[in-house]
Every structure is written in C-alpha cells, then in structure tokens.
C-alpha cells in the first residue's frame, strides 16, 4: 500500500502536477461546510483524482471526525506551516476511499497561530502532490477566513435556504470578489416539501439575491447525520439523495461543467414528479 | 440637520449644523459664557457618537474677539465629547470657495499633478457649502451586497439590486433600479423632502431626514413604490398611482 502510494507520488511529481486549491466557505456556521467538504473531496476522489481536504478550522477541528480519522492524527497543519513535519507525515490517508487525504487542523492552537503567507506556502507544496486541495473554511470572516481564502484559486459558497444564511453568504461573496475570486454557489439542506408549501425559500430566490453561478443543489438528508456519526463521507451512503447531489457536484467540478443541476423534488405523487421532470427539460 | 436650543427670544443661543464633514456651531455671544457652555453641552449630548473625533468649527459671529469663550468651549468639547479638531471660524463663509475657484482658473493648463490637487480643493470647498443651484447625482451600477455601504451627499441612483444587510446613504433622493432589500437612508442630514424609490420596494429600513421607518413585510409581487415624509411620518405609496410630482407646474431642478 505504502509502496504504491510512493509510486503514485513519484509518477505525479514526474507529471509536474499543479493542483487546484478550492476553498469552501459560507460565513455562517452550521450550514454544512465541513460535511460538504468531506463529501466533495470524497466525490472527487471516487472520480479518480488525488484529493487533499484541509481542515482550516484551527482550534475547533471537525473534518477528521467526519472522515473517521480522528485517532490517526499525529501532525497537523500548524506543524506543517511551522516546518515541524513534512507533507507525508501530516496528511492522513482515508481508510475507505482511495486517493483521499486529510490535512487536519490543530485543536490546541488558535486561528492566529498561522498567517495567510504560511498557508500559501503549505498550499504551494500540496499543489505538487495533489490534484485538488479543498480548504474547509471556518465560520466567520476573521483571521481564519483570511487564512483559508488567501491561497484559494476558486471558491465555493455554501448556503442554506434561509434568510440569515443568505445574508452571511452575501457578505462573504462580496469579500471574495474583493479578493478577485469568483465564487460558485451550493444551496444545501433544501426541503422540497417545504419549498412546495411556500414555507422555505426556493433555490431560485437564493440565486436571485446572491446572483452567482450555481454549482449544485443538495436536499436535506437524514443520512448526513448517520454518515457523520459513522465517520464516513455521505457520498458512500447508498440511496442517499444528498450523497448523489454531492457526487454530481464532484463531477461538475471535475471536467463536466455542463452536467445538469438536479432540482430536489418531493417524493409524493408519481405524476407530479414526471411533470416536474418534463418541465425541467424544457 | 440643524438642531438648536430655543431661549426666551426667537434666536437660539447655540446652533449646530452639519457643514461638509464638520459640525458648525454658531454661538450667540450676547449670552454669558457658562450659559452657552451648558447649551452647547445639551446639543452635543443629543449628537451622541457623532461627536467622537468630529471636526468642529466655532462661529461667534465676529471674526475676532471672544477668545476666552472659544478656548473655554473648545476645552469643554474636547474633554467631554472627545471631538477631534476644533477651529474657529474667522472668515465669511463664501470667501474660501471664491479663492479656490479663482485659483482654478489660474492653474488650468499647468501640470497634471497640480490639476489633481486643484480638483481636490474644489471638492473640499464645495463640501463646505451646500450647492443650492446644482443637482448632483452619484450614479452607480451593480449589486450592493451585505456589508457594503454606499455614501454620498448627493442624490443616489443604483442600477442593480441592494441586498439585505447593505446600506445606501444619500444627501438627496435614492432611486434603485432593481430590488431594494437593504437599508436606505435618504435626505441626510435634514432634507425631509427626499424620497426613496425602488422598482421592487422591500427595504429592511428606510430613513428620510431624521425620520426612521421599519420595512414592511414584502408584498407577494414586486411593485414600484416610493417612501416620503408626510405629516411627520414616512409613508410608502405606489409611485405610478400617487404621481408625487404631478403638482409641479414646471419641471424643477431637484435639489439635494
């Protein structure tokens, strides 16, 4: 296993790999950034790409738990930034998905322990080893946000269809534009039944206010909780709607930008569903 | 916004007016120093946080004399309200602008750098006195997002949407050619004739002059509405139906 990884690494280095750094951010906490990062990372890895997910939430790390890797952490991103270890020591290979690696955050430091320049250097090193580097941005727009956004080539803004989340996402979009990054949007936790009843904002309302490119729509899914507790990315769950949506997002990121965006629909009524499908194809 | 304290006579002993980026304090020197100090204190208390680091011009009405009064009030304002710079008004108001405009004529066709400086000075001079005859607009396009703020002392027109959490502040009217969902502050500091108009009117809050109104729950469909002050209250009406400027016999310059 180790030998194979080494061979892959040598092969990739031989190709003069230049990875892409994508930051996943939202402004507000609890909208599904970490779950989304784990899921998109896993989806890209399942596509055969070599992916590193980086937990930028220094002091409040979570991504390791979502990937079921909390007991394998020896070094973390602060150690790497301060030059106390090498990339191979700090990145942890995911047990369940080939090609997926985690660079965990430190739980004992805080966001001021590193600065954007140091993270930039770390990411430049990671770019040579991985094809996709996904940064899980902490909530807020302070130092942690600055650290996570500094090295990013692209940004994904995660948003729930609710007013507070939209307002924070809007603020973050403004900040990203000011850093010359054009973000794309994922609307997470859509409950189609509530949208149908007019009790929840539809994805159209969200896109109307935020007016950025849509990358995907993810329905609310109980499986996400189960997956998080089990410590495996939701894309591995069979018949999970959210998992399916994240897989499609992965495909869209990975060279299939024109893959149609599935709009989450309520299950009730076979003919209604058919009708909506026909409506969408127009 | 001009605020003042009325004494027995009609003339107020102390008046505060926002001029450019300074607070202009006019003192009636016929009153005793302690009384003026007390009245100034009352006015500045009402200004609250606005006084911190503010520039204050004291105007005793005459170009010289009253040095004790000026220094007394200067110290008082600096110590109590933490104002920034306190200066004394020594020349009539119009003079500085005349000087700069003369300079402009002389300096035209000189180097670019000088021209830039000249432009800045003209702007400063214009700031000091509100232009009565001209109607100026800050015309912008694009989306104003949450956390962003547009401030102008002129009229403001935005071709685009104003998102919730954004603030737009103008000295005159505000026209939003799109959805207004954020906070709109028109007619600052004291123009109660200003209006706020939007093609899709659903603001979080509207302020006109000194009046504040919380946004109403949005209508199901978008509607071109405007907010204006009527009988001491902010009223929102359908712009097309209300025709607010129908009563004017001739088109007029809209002052800000």
Walk me through what this model shows.
- The complex is a heterodimer of chains A (282) and B (256).
- Chain A is α/β, with parallel strands linked by helices and 282 residues long.
- Helices cover 44% and strands 15% of the residues of chain A.
- Chain A is built from 13 helices and eight strands.
- In chain A, strands 3-4-2-5-1-6-7-8 form an eight-stranded mixed β-sheet, sandwiched between helices.
- In chain A, strand 3 (92-93) and strand 4 form a beta hairpin.
- In chain A, helix 2 (33-46) crosses helix 12 (241-253) and helix 6 runs parallel beside helix 7.
- Helices cover 25% and strands 30% of the residues of chain B.
- Chain B has a six-stranded mixed β-sheet with strand order 6-8-10-12-15-16. In chain B, strands 1-2-3-4-5 form a five-stranded mixed β-sheet, covered by helices on one side.
- In chain B, helix 1 links the parallel strand 3 (22-27) and strand 4.
- In chain B, helix 1 runs parallel beside helix 2 (67-81) and helix 3 packs antiparallel against helix 4 (112-128).
- The longest helix of chain B has 17 residues, at 112-128.
- Chain B starts with a strand and ends in a 14-residue tail after the last helix.
- Mean pLDDT of chain B is 78; it is low at 93-128.
- The interface between A and B is small, with 11 and 10 residues.
